[in-house]
Amino acid sequence: MNRLMALIKREFWENKGAFRTTPLVIGGIFLAAMLMFLITFNYFDNEFQSLRELLRFIAQTDTDMRSKVLYAANLEISVFFSTVLAFVVFFYLLGSLYDDRKDRSILFWKSLPASDTLTIVSKLLSAMVVAPLIFWVIYVITHSVIMLLFSVVIMVLGENPWTLFLSLGNPFEAWSLVLVSYFAQSIWALPLYGWLMLVSAFAPRIPLLFAILPPVILGVLELWIDFLHTFTLSDNLFGLFGHWFANSPLIMSADKHNDEFGASLGIPITSDFDHQVTVANMFDRLFSSDMLIGLAIAAIFLGATLWLRRRATES
């Protein structure tokens, strides 16, 4: 366990720019955008008169409606963080086993008292746990600072931020759901993570091409052969990727639930699963036959990755 923790710390320090700096930049962009909004509003609206009127109007609206709108907004703030996190994890795993072959440090790492299995597990856990957890913490901090700044503005304008929005919206519930969705997505994405690590273990150069071209070529060939047989274009590998992406347990879009708009799991273009943001719907995906097939595929990819890693020397 100590060796595994040491390897995970090594992954963090070697990739702290992606794991730590990137979400900090996103949080900074959110805060800068909010400050620019307030400054611009003050410039065009003398002493925030329009904003005062807007706050008075909001204060008179139905409390339940305000609560639901704020709750959905709390969830949807995470979408930008989630999108960037997906890119960070994608490129991290793609270079996880390729970089030390590229810079010829693989023999040094293999000489340390840590097995290839532990090395692969540490990199996988870094993508599944460490990166999502850091992004989530900075998302919560960013959200909290935004609420604090808006509270100050609202108090200056003579309204009560607690009754207006702080006591509504269930921020702790929203934060918890975002964290659960991050970890659920990490499990759901195991086939993709396994494929990226497999490519990283064998690609002689430019792993991005090796990761993308084989599925694209296979999908195009499947479409072409299917068209020659039936003169129609039915679901193929691209369709499977689309369904997998749309049924993600990650909060990543908006949809209408019970005649009200709110955040949604995945993209609500399929009816395979319920897209409403609940822990039960996330677990419904993780305990499905789709997930079982995905775990089998991930096991094959990761087993092949370990086999290649044990025989790897240098690129």
Q: What does the model show?
A:
- This protein is mainly alpha-helical.
- The chain folds into two domains: 2-170, no CATH class; 207-310, no CATH class.
- The chain is 76% helix and 4% strand.
- It is built from 15 helices and two strands.
- The chain has helices at 2-14, 16-44, 49-60, 63-76, 78-96, 99-102, 106-111, 116-156, 161-166, 171-188, 190-202, 207-230, 237-246, 279-286, 289-310; strands at residues 251-257, 260-265.
- A two-stranded antiparallel ribbon has the order 1-2.
- A hairpin with a 2-residue loop joins strand 1 and strand 2 (260-265).
- The longest helix is centred in the middle third of the chain and has 41 residues, at 116-156.
The count of β-strands is 2
Helix content: over 70%
Estimated share of beta-strand residues: under 5%
Principal-axis shape: globular
